[in-house]
Every structure is written in C-alpha cells, then in structure tokens.
Amino acid sequence: MYGGEFDGAAAFSGGGFMPSQATQAPDSSFSTSKNREGRPLLSVTVKQIQGGIDESNLFIDGVEVNNVTLVGMVCKKDDKVSEYTFLVDDGTGRIECSRWVQESIDTEEMEGVSVGMYVRVHGHLRSLQGKRFINAFSIRPIADFNEITGHFIECMYVHLYNTKIRGSVTQPQLANSRMSTPMKGYQAVAPNQFSTSYGIGSLDSLSQSVLNLLKHPTYLAREEGVHRLMIAEQLNTPMEKVMEALEHLQDNGCVYSTIDNDHYKSSVNG
Amino acid sequence: MDTSNPAVFVNGGLLRMYVGRRVRTVIQVLQSERGAVFGKSTDNLELVVKGSPSSIPLSTFVEVIGIADSEKSIRADIWTNFGDTFDTNSYNQLCQLASGEFKHLFV
C-alpha cells in the first residue's frame, strides 16, 4: 500500500517539503522510501485518522501514517477463533481494532481485555473499502490513568511538530529530525551512528583516553575489566583525575564497575 | 469508524460551553449520594454528577462521561475509577488545550 503508486502530488501539497533541487527520481523521493523503511509510529486521535485523504495511503499533517498508537476505552469486544475485534472509543471517535491470535500468550492478553476498560493500542492503520481499522500488534489495559492525559498531550505535540517545527527546518536536517523526534525509541538507529553520538562529544580528553584504554580488546575480553590503579599507571595520571574521569564516564553510561568499585569495564564495544 | 459522537475533555469552567453535548471529565469525589455524586473539578469548581456509578466504591478520582446537563452538572452514563492519585494539573491543562488551540484534533 506504500508502493510505487504513491501519489506524490497529493502527499506533498500540504507538507511543502519536496526538495526543489531533487537529485533523486520522483518515484524514489525520500518521503516514500524513508517512510517505508522507517515505519514511524504516531500518537493519534481517532478524529485525526478520519481526516486522512485518499483511499490507500493515509496522511496526517503531511506525514504518511503506517503505525499508530492510541488510548481509549473498549466499548465492544468480539472473539472469533483466531481473531479478536474491539471497538475502541478514545473520546474523539470510535475505531475498530482487530488482533490476530496465534499463540496462547496472545489469547491470554486478549482475554485480559474487557468492555469498559481503558487500553493502549499499538497497530497498523489499514483501510479497506473506505473503512479504516487498526491491525493491532498489542492491546494492553492501562494501569496508570495519567497515561490517558499523557497520550493526548503527545498527540498535540506530534501534530505541532509535524505541522510547525518540521516545516521550518531546512531540507537536509529534515530527514533526520523528522524521523527521530516524534518516534523516539521506536526508530531504528544505525549502530555506528549510535556509538559516535554516544556521549563522546561531551567527553574531555582524559575521559576519552580512559575510555579508549577500556575499549582495548585485551581489557574488553576480561570479565572483571581493569583495576583503576592500572588505568592510572597506564595513562600516567593521578588517581583522583582518573576517578573523576571514571565517574563522568559512568554517569554517561560509557563504563560500569564490575566485581568491586575498583574494577571498570567499557559498556561500549571497541 | 465513527466520530459523530465525541466526548469533549472538560474541566469545571469549560462545562458551560458544552451544555447539551457529550463531555468527559475527572472529578475528585467529595460526597456520594443516591443518584448523585458531588465532586471537585480539576480547576477546583464544584460539580454535580447525576446517575449511578457502575463500580462501587468510587476511588478518590473518577472519570465520568455523559451529557452536560447544565453549567455545573453532568448526567453520566460511564464511570471509571481513576484511583487515588491522579495528576489533576496536567489533566486540567489538557482540557484547556483540547478546547482551545488543538480543538480540531478532538472534536
């Protein structure tokens, strides 16, 4: 459904983020391909889903929507042999959610959900014969009701982000910022990007040296890591400086103490 | 999918804008009588909620969904216990935003 028949004109009319100096062929424009790879997860209200435009692709605030999360009350539940269907009312509207069950653990999850309960749904938004529904990956009861407030505030944030902030950043940054911020941890990050951005920018040179030492394959291989005396000796640095660096690294999650408070090991692989 | 009958997030002050329409709000229960519950809205106004709670006893905070009867009362058909701790301040701000700048996301 997010294939080559992508309707570029309709998609970009509202967003205005189509590169004017496009270097790629139109049918592989980054929005289509990025979304297919990225599968962003958006917090939405049912009202927003209804506002989508065409039949096969759904756009909210100029962003193609595949996966959504919403919070609402179950107002109807039907169970069939391999599928449960729920009508979820989030106060802005009602939408049908279906959950296919294969394993007994899925069945147990669904048996735990009953009419009148508040749930969080994660799923894939689908459209069939003009009718929208969600193929749910999970439907879980809400334990802390502040999550309801939080969800709707997040919907506003995502809307604001996609309509205002995204429109004001320049093209090259757009791909990154748009893909990362609203979806947070759901977005896959390339491993090498991860390790470079991982605190290293903020490390002073001693911390960096300590980290480099700890990342040495010989020390990484040792289960207990390296004794702090050894670090001080190797780097020819006073112990208190080494301790400062180690604490800093520990606060940033780069190193951890192992068998006792004197042995440290890098949490980042070389 | 059906968005014809939304329930608007309201606090005590916003209730007057939606008389006759479907609303949802969270109250702190002050007093419970047969057929009516007296409570405090998230903006510290007194509200009367008519109807019979489906779950008894009520927790400190209760969400009610129903028709706004007047500026100060709601005829509720859905009652949900929200427990004894709830962030009323955030909820109150949500109500403001959902009836203001972001209304189009809700109704």
Structure in a nutshell:
The complex is a heterodimer of chains A (270) and B (107). Chain A has 270 residues and is an alpha+beta fold. Chain A is built from eleven helices and eleven strands.
How would you characterize the overall build of this protein?
The complex is a heterodimer of chains A (270) and B (107). With 270 residues, chain A is of the alpha+beta class. Chain A has eleven helices and eleven strands. In chain A, strands 4-5-6-8-7 form a five-stranded mixed barrel. By secondary structure, chain B is mainly beta. Chain B has one domain (8-99): Nucleic acid-binding proteins (OB fold (Dihydrolipoamide Acetyltransferase, E2P), Beta Barrel), CATH 2.40.50. The radius of gyration of chain B is 13 Å and the shape is globular. Chains A and B meet through α3, β6, β8 and α5 of A and β1, β5 and α1 of B. Chain B: GO terms for molecular function: DNA binding. Chain B: InterPro entries: NA-bd_OB-fold, Rfa2. Chain B: It is found in: Nucleus.
Give the SSE order of chain B as H and E letters.
EEEEEEH
Q: In which range does the helix fraction of chain A lie?
A: 25-40%
What does the main sheet of chain B amount to? 5 strands, mixed, barrel
Gyration radius over CA of chain B:
13 Å
Summed up, the domain count of chain B is 1
| Order of neighbouring strands in the sheet with most strands of chain B | 2-3-4-6-5
Helical percent range of chain B? 10-25%
The number of distinct helices of chain B, counting runs of at least 4 residues, comes to 1
Please tell me the CATH architecture of the largest domain in chain A by its name: Beta Barrel
Give the chain pair forming the largest contact, with residue counts.
Answer: A-B, 28 and 29 residues
Task: Give the count of helical stretches of chain A.
Answer: 11
Low-confidence stretches of chain A: 1-35, 170-201
Terminal CA distance of chain B:
14 Å
Structural class of chain A: alpha+beta
Structural class of chain B: mainly beta
